[in-house]
Amino acid sequence: MFQNVSLNSSLLLQSGLLSWSPGADDADGVTFTVQFRRFGEKRWQDVPSCVHIAAPPCDVSALVQEAKHGCVRLQVKGHRQGEESEAVEACRRRNDTCTPQVTLSALPGSLTVHLTRSHALWDKHADHAKHRVCVGPPERPEQSCAESLSSLTLSALDEGQTYCTTVQYTLHGKREGLPRCPVCQEPPRAAAGHFWVIPAVVLPGLVLGSIMAYFIIFHRDKVKRWLRPPPRPHSLSLPLEDALVCTPTEEHCSVITGFTELHQD
């Protein structure tokens, strides 16, 4: 029925207008209904001034101002000839008090989603406030989703494939506020020379380790002798039975003619 439902962040901050782009198949007779769900609520309600309207925008400024923490979710449905389309949830292109701040960084085969705990929900609810992180191709950015308190890295990604992420706050496992509009990036391709870095570092280590293991196993005694500290110098002592001790009062002493060598291991 329609596509590209999005909340224009600059207008939201100034006048709270929700806008979207009708799909190519939307012909005359199609009308739209905007629904909202405030912080902590379980059911969607129609915005009274935006039921079966012919075209955007929809003024939701009062809803945002009244919502706790500014957390309000918005979605749009299309109607034509008694049929109703699936709801498409609005998103924001920039972070605010109830939309996460998201940045991406990529390495060959991996993508890191950088998040922060510095937001109003975490300040009040601590680790009960998390991020719902979804990733997928541009046409299906919510293909796979998981909850996380902080930044996370997605690995084993296909080369040449663009990946998009959407992030939304959760509280006790329930989504709150508007999600961040998809942020997309393609992980870079690994350079061919990079595959030689690991062997060039690991191979010398393996060779050195093999040499050390050989000496330890087959030349253990030699290794012990090499590692044994040098022996102490031989000490010389004089046997008391062969020596005459002179006292200060004596004027003549016998001459010592020899020493006995004692070995100390």
From TrEMBL:
<dbReference type="InterPro" id="IPR003961">
    <property type="entry name" value="FN3_dom"/>
</dbReference>
<feature type="transmembrane region" description="Helical">
    <location>
        <begin position="195"/>
        <end position="218"/>
    </location>
</feature>
<feature type="domain" description="Fibronectin type-III">
    <location>
        <begin position="17"/>
        <end position="86"/>
    </location>
</feature>
<dbReference type="GO" id="GO:0005886">
    <property type="term" value="C:plasma membrane"/>
</dbReference>
<dbReference type="InterPro" id="IPR050650">
    <property type="entry name" value="Type-II_Cytokine-TF_Rcpt"/>
</dbReference>
<keyword id="KW-0732">Signal</keyword>
<dbReference type="InterPro" id="IPR013783">
    <property type="entry name" value="Ig-like_fold"/>
</dbReference>
<dbReference type="InterPro" id="IPR036116">
    <property type="entry name" value="FN3_sf"/>
</dbReference>
<keyword id="KW-1133">Transmembrane helix</keyword>
<protein>
    <recommendedName>
        <fullName>Fibronectin type-III domain-containing protein</fullName>
    </recommendedName>
</protein>
<dbReference type="Pfam" id="PF01108">
    <property type="entry name" value="Tissue_fac"/>
</dbReference>
<keyword id="KW-0812">Transmembrane</keyword>
<feature type="signal peptide">
    <location>
        <begin position="1"/>
        <end position="27"/>
    </location>
</feature>
<keyword id="KW-0472">Membrane</keyword>
<dbReference type="GO" id="GO:0004896">
    <property type="term" value="F:cytokine receptor activity"/>
</dbReference>
